[in-house]
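--- STAGE predict ---
source: upstream dedup step, 1 unique chain passed
mode: sequence only
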Amino acid sequence: MAVITRTRNCLKNFKRDFKKGLFSQEDGKVLKVWAKEMELYGPKYIEDSSEWRDHPLYGEWFGYRASCFSIEGRIIYQIIDENTVEVCEVERITPKHDYKK
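--- STAGE serialize ---
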């Protein structure tokens, strides 16, 4: 089981991009499924699932992971282990395959 938090920038940018129409209603539904699966089954499940095409990131994103929620859309997140609780902190949700910080 994981607890998901979202950075302030992630929330602000997601809301802005959603208002701009960069995310569809379908994207929103898929993101909710990802969050629910992450909360219920944890990061290892997401990592092992072929549905999310989850993978580690390198370079300036070293220590983060990315899950695919559409052809180009990515959820960039970091797993923070605190004793027995895994906190999944979502850094960015991007409608484009864009890993620039």
